[in-house]
Amino acid sequence: MEVFSTASDIPSSYLCAYSVFNQNVSVYNFGDVLVTKDHKTTGQVKIISGGKTSYIDYVGKGMLTATVQGPNSESPTPNVILKTIRELSLNHINGILVIISAHSKDSLSFGLAVERAINDDLHVKFLSVSEDCGKNALSREQQKSSNQSGMVLIYKIAGALSQCNKSLSYIFEYCTRAVQFLVSDSSTMRQDLFPKKISYCQKSSSDIHGNNFLPTSGMTKENLQEVLTELLSNLIKNNKFVLSPGDICILLINNLGAFKRQEEFVIMGIVAAFFEAKNLQVVRLYIGRYFRINDNVELNISLLKNFDEDLVTYLDASCSVPGWFPVYQDAPILKESVIQSCLRRKCRLSPPIKGPKLRDRLSNVIQLCLQFACDALISCEKMLNKIDSEIGNGDTGSKMRSIAEVLNKRSCNHKLNLSYPFTFFLSLSKILDHTVGGDIGCVYSILFEAVANKFGDYREDDEISFNMWIEAMENACNALKKYGGANIDQYTVYNPISACLDTMKAHSNKECNPIDVFNLGVSKAEDVALQSIKPGCKYPNAEAHAVGIWLRATYEGVKLKC
């Protein structure tokens, strides 16, 4: 079974399927012709285009009335084009405007069809869109076989004028004038860029996380700026018209798959800086993937000089086509939008005093437990790194040491309030988030933040009890599970702490010594950490094992002082 039709007098299967996707259009039963469903009910001038390049995404209200596509990436036949013109002219007196790129061979087929339509006394005009800036990086042969992206702007202008019930002559003359101020240039990014800068790109690959690196494209911002500067310079120094300081421009950047969406904004920044340096004002900048030009072109930029005060109004007019990307630019794009924060008070690293207070002896226990836990993690750095290297990056020990050193330093400098659990644990959370960062810093920040929040719920005159510590630990487990997506099948920080909590809760009502209950919980956490060995591995999960280490050290501090 053939997937695509080869006959020129029946519609291709992809166009029929497209009419299912876009239910504002239909397919004629002759050739590859896509047309708006309401074309018979509107009295405005009708706009036709087409050719080898697919323009089907621009058929709809506010742009094209119909597009005539060629079979198998060939130009459509004059007979199919003429039949389309005749169909659209039936009981229609306002006329048809045919818009074709001057850089393609499609103009011959469409030109012949238009001449025959005129001989049939049909009201038709033919607009050839030339966008050559006179300094194009593409060869002349490549230009002849490819279209340029500025066609989309002409479609938009013509469609908007038609919606405003302008006459065919007016639309033709206005669009003809627009073409006189339209230029485009293309780049084969890989050929233009990599032969010049391949050694530099290889050198820069080690800095993949730097601000100047575009990861998917394999190029640096400086390399990209060089290529863009050449393209933009060709546009403003074109042979069609003169651009003077203060002139207003519209830009359309057609990204044909060379860049990710985030990288498009890097391009926008470079373009904005270029035009600002030239004292040229860009009032509209469109960027995205509009249509394929040819297999070589990866980036195409079109520049339209603002020649009429209503031009931007026509470009901003509403339309309902999938291929047009509306923009929300009321001010010139060279003006960055940065607003000042309304908050005047800076975030305090040292939190306020809140909740119940520990007795002096117990606050000393807290300090000793913190010191024991930090010392244990520092001494186990190499072991944890070795464990983590089996299936991870081999840096869990180094990360835990970083946390321990930060907290140890604050404690030794007496910069932690040990008397109020709320203040103490909130300080730990803020310190780790501010200094350590990353996933591990965030996990422990959430842990300590949740413990602090629970102590903040109690009154200042409440006596701190063992059950308060259990409730605070339970709040921490709930927070880790809520924000970390942790579950019992993933041996992370959550699982040992959760096991410790469940054991302590099970024995807290049995008149046991709280220290002994804590010991049972720590032992259970250590067992769970050791059970985290995955099939085929020798070692347990490093993060889970680290929890067992600092929990055991904390218990030893409690046992020593209590």
UniProtKB/TrEMBL annotation:
Signal peptide: none annotated. Residues 364-556 form the DhaL domain. Keywords: ATP-binding, Cobalt, Kinase, Nucleotide-binding, Transferase. Catalyzes both the phosphorylation of dihydroxyacetone and of glyceraldehyde, and the splitting of ribonucleoside diphosphate-X compounds among which FAD is the best substrate. Represses IFIH1-mediated cellular antiviral response. One of its GO terms (cellular component) is cytosol. PROSITE patterns: DHAK (PS51481), DHAL (PS51480). Pfam families: Dak1 (PF02733), Dak2 (PF02734). One of its GO terms (biological process) is glycerol catabolic process. InterPro entries: DhaK_dom, DhaL_dom, DhaL_dom_sf, Dihydroxyacetone_Kinase. It catalyses: D-glyceraldehyde + ATP = D-glyceraldehyde 3-phosphate + ADP + H(+); dihydroxyacetone + ATP = dihydroxyacetone phosphate + ADP + H(+); FAD = riboflavin cyclic-4',5'-phosphate + AMP + H(+). Its EC number is 2.7.1.28, 2.7.1.29, 4.6.1.15. The keyword Nucleotide-binding applies. Homodimer. Interacts with IFIH1 (via the CARD domains), the interaction is inhibited by viral infection. Residues 1-324 form the DhaK domain. One of its GO terms (molecular function) is triokinase activity. It comes from Sitophilus oryzae (Rice weevil). This is Triokinase/FMN cyclase.
